Amino acid sequence: MTDQTSDWVSRSLKSVWHPCTQMQHHARDQDRVPLIPVSHGRGAWLYDHDGRRYLDAISSWWVNLFGHANPRINAALRDQLDMLEHAMLAGFTHEPVIRLSERLSALTGGVLGHAFYASDGASAVEIALKMSFHAWRNAGRSDKQEFVCLQGSYHGETIGALAVTDVALFKDAYGPLLRATQTVMSPDARQARDGETAQDVARRAAADVQRLFEQKADRIAAIIIEPLVQCAAGMAMHDPLYLQLVRELCDRHEVHLILDEIAVGCGRTGTFFACEQAGIWPDFVTLSKGISGGYLPLSLVLTKDQVYQAFYSADITRGFLHSHSYTGNPLACRAALATLDIFEEDNVLEANRARAASLGAAMAPLADHPRVKNLRQRGMILAFDAAGVDKTFSRRFFANATRNELLLRPIGSTVYLMPPYILDDEEIAGLAARTRAVFEQTLAEAS
Question: Residue 409, annotated ligand binder?
Answer without folding.
Answer: yes
